[in-house]
Amino acid sequence: MSRRGGSGFDPVAAFACLGNETRLSILEALYETTRSYDGPGRRAVPYSDLQTAVGIDDSGQFNYHLTRLRNHFVSKTDGGYVLDQTGKTVAQILLRSFGVEDPAFDATPVDDAPVDTDCPRCGESLAVSYADEHVVTRCQHCPGVVDAAALPDGTVSALVFPPAGVHDRSRSELVAAVHRRYEFHCVSMAQGLCPTCGGEVARELVSCSDHDTDGICEACGTTLPVTVSLCCRVCGHQRLAPVPFTRTDSPLVAAAFTDPDNGWERFAATLGWPVESVPVDDGGECRVRVEPPETDAVLWFDEQLRVWPEESSDGRGYSPDGRGTSAGRRENSPDGHSSSTDDPADGDDSVPGRPSPPPDGDSS
């Protein structure tokens, strides 16, 4: 693993110095003292103010622990002491995961309106549980959506969520919040940006070649014939999701939903959208055809998760925002291949009878 050794950062020494209650208190005090600061740069806390905030009278002892944190999590300036970004991250982890009581609860029905949280497969009410920083939604009337050794029967989703976000939310509010956060992560990663570390994300369309549509497929362990695998190349942050759920930021996909703030609605809906994986060539590349129910739209996704609408039967093309256009439009040529009116060679990689990506390479 590559480490920031050139900058003088020693991860072994850094983690070792965190094993002390006083040092953790210093990090928390620095964070709490400066978290509301909205001025330029980082606000420095004078030595005496920081010592008072931590509550240690012995200056020698306090100075010793503060010095241990320098060069790892804290920096000294003319005005006092400031948290480095790594120190701020540590303080935030303490607050969201260790600074609250364990909110774990067993599976309970999600029957508190207004969020509609019925099972997307059978329509019965869901139950939700929280343990080990995971929110699990499950149906107690059908097999659910995913089957894995660590998950209970009937699982629809199992998502990481910090303990601090569980408190003060009803069961339905929790389900909505968890899936909204999941959606933010998926959309960001679909665009190639890891929401955790900012690293580059590898995107892959995963098709089940022997998918069983009757219940949960034994081959892939889900009800979905095609999914998207998203994985950060730097920190390993991962997400697995329905294909259209990763592009709810696109107007072409969002047009099928009624509530722009309900992450659960979009997740549950896209679980049931008909999807088909269509090979592009012998090299293994594929595109995914999606038909949002109760609409006339047919959408296509490629391996970079670009999305565009299928051309209408009269050959009318579309601009990147989904509106008809005559410039650079896609039309069906006599041999059934998609092509571009302003660049005949632009459709060379198209699938016979299948639309090619928009001229600019991305529709949304």
Distance between the termini: 36 Å
Strand and helix order = HHHHEEHEEEEHEEEHHEEEEEEEE
Q: Outline the low-pLDDT stretches.
A: 312-355, 359-364
Figure out the total of helices. 8
Short summary:
By secondary structure, the chain is α+β, with helices and mostly antiparallel strands.
Walkthrough of the structure:
The chain is elongated. By secondary structure, it is an alpha+beta fold. Helix 2 crosses helix 3 and helix 2 packs across helix 5. It has 3 domains: 5-98, Winged helix-like DNA-binding domain superfamily/Winged helix DNA-binding domain (Arc Repressor Mutant, subunit A); 105-247, no CATH class; 274-347, no CATH class. The protein has 8 helices and 17 strands. The strands form 6 sheets. Strands 3-4-5-6 form a 4-stranded antiparallel beta sheet, covered by helices on one side. A 4-stranded antiparallel beta sheet has the order 10-11-12-13, with no helix packed on it. Strands 7-8-9 form a 3-stranded antiparallel beta sheet. It has helices spanning 11-16, 21-34, 47-54, 59-69, 85-98, 171-190, 251-254, 263-271; strands at 74-77, 80-83, 105-109, 126-131, 134-139, 155-160, 201-207, 226-232, 238-242, 275-279, 286-290, 299-301, 307-309, 317-318, 324-325, 330-332, 338-340. Helices cover 24% and strands 21% of the residues. The model is unreliable at 312-355 and 359-364 (pLDDT under 50).
